[in-house]
Amino acid sequence: MGVQNSELPGFYKLSVEERRKKIAEVAGLPASEVDGWQPGTGVDIGILDRMIENVVGAFSLPLGIATHFLVNGKDYLVPMAIEEPSVVAAASHAAKIARAGGGFHAMVSAPQMIGQVQILGAKDPHGALHRILEDETRLLELANAKDPVLAKVGGGARRLEARVVESPRGPMIIVHLVVDVRDAMGANAVNTMSEALAPEFARLAEGRSHLRIISNLAIYRVARSRAVFPRDTLAFGNWKGSDVIDGILDAWAMAACDPFRCATHNKGIMNGISAVAIATGNDFRALESGAHSYAAWKARPGGVIAPLSTYEQDANGNLVGTIELPMAVGTVGGATVSHPTARLNVRLLGISGAEELARVITSVGLAQNFAALRALATEGIQKGHMSLHARNVAMAAGANASEVDRVAEALARSGTVRIDKAKEILSTLRSHA
Ligand code: MEV
């Protein structure tokens, strides 16, 4: 398929219906097919149309509910939106094991985000940096005047930090405005304040301001979670509990010393974190960027990337897992509030605000990571993965709803989960129907 020309002047001015028609026309798609963009029940296309630009419909991800989560003594059913098989099952299973050890114990720092302002052209960058910091009280007042609502709910601009850095284009001053954003993700508040202060910084520095934007390396908005996975609950197949623990410790050690493994280790954590972030309408790209840059930041000096989790054995021989990463999630503003499915999911979680959400999401990250390491350290990831993946392959091979399970089972049994094999099984099945 594809199109001859992707220029669509005035496309943004059309209604959703008209946009769909237009796309069908230029891409040569039957009108009935673009109906697939129509959101299911529960989501009004008018709301989606106001969320982003050039809307033609909705993209549905499976939404699963992870069970067994106990965080700081409270039970949670956790909504997860993700396309990857095994993730929800793995999180639920890990949460069940953690529950036997008392559940997850999670905490968060104050929700402080960093706004960055780049100052160029100061003749005396170190003197300029001092002049800015000397005026901190007035500058913070100025920032807070931009968001009286935030100050009213106990948040607001807290402090300034500044550095002179040598860049490929010469020295520059980077000022950090640290803002307590309370229950918001924070980008709007922080960007507004940073833009408001930039001319003041420039004036004091006798230079000019350039970039004014939030940093996703949210080192002052960190969430932590810890869980004990009791040794006796870890026995599995021919593996004794202590074998599984040894296997997980060796797996973690590889992530701690090898960046190639560490990237995948942390990816497994984000499988859980991003899925909950999407389900609750949070900015999962900000979380991803924050997590991976934090992993690099933690590895300083000299390292490339560090695992976001640790594993040890406690005095009783049980496995102790911990996780720590930036957690810039919000429960006010943005899609969390405007998207009906996200709103419903937040209600299901029964959380009181962003800090509680951060504690739950971080615990899901730890659960996901533990589940991946446990599988990798024992039977490998493919066995569990393949039986679920087989369903996707069966569907891709053309199996309809009544055929999917039978084709998937036969595929998984065959040990060859490939589309050609699925087609072969499907045609045999149909010839016997
Ligand atoms: C797959 O999405 C995630 C894993 O690769 C994570 C890991 O290797 O730790 C299984």
Task: Describe the protein in words.
- It is a single chain.
- Strands 3-8-10-9 form a 4-stranded antiparallel beta sheet.
- The two termini are 34 Å apart.
- The chain is globular and about 80 Å long.
- The protein has helices spanning 16-27, 31-34, 45-51, 87-100, 125-134, 136-145, 148-152, 187-205, 241-257, 259-279, 284-298, 335-338, 340-349, 354-377, 382-396, 404-414, 419-431; strands spanning 63-71, 74-81, 104-108, 112-120, 156-167, 170-180, 208-215, 222-229, 309-313, 319-326.
- With 433 residues, it is α+β, with helices and mostly antiparallel strands.
- The longest helix is centred in the last third of the chain and has 24 residues, at 354-377.
- A hairpin with a 2-residue loop joins strand 5 (156-167) and strand 6 (170-180).
- The structure holds (R)-mevalonate (MEV).
- (R)-mevalonate binds next to helix 10 and helix 14.
- (R)-mevalonate is lined by residues 84, 264-265, 267-268, 271, 372, 376, 381.
Biggest sheet: strands side by side, in what order?
3-8-10-9
Number of helices: 17
CATH topology of the largest domain: 3-hydroxy-3-methylglutaryl-coenzyme A Reductase, Chain A, domain 2
Euclidean distance between termini CA atoms: 34 Å
Q: What's the pLDDT, averaged over the residues?
A: 95
Bound molecules: (R)-mevalonate
Strand and helix map with partners:
Elements: H1 16-27, H2 31-34, H3 45-51, E1 63-71, E2 74-81, H4 87-100, E3 104-108, E4 112-120, H5 125-134, H6 136-145, H7 148-152, E5 156-167, E6 170-180, H8 187-205, E7 208-215, E8 222-229, H9 241-257, H10 259-279, H11 284-298, E9 309-313, E10 319-326, H12 335-338, H13 340-349, H14 354-377, H15 382-396, H16 404-414, H17 419-431
Antiparallel strand pairs: 1-2, 3-8, 4-6, 4-7, 5-6, 8-10, 9-10
Bound molecules: (R)-mevalonate.
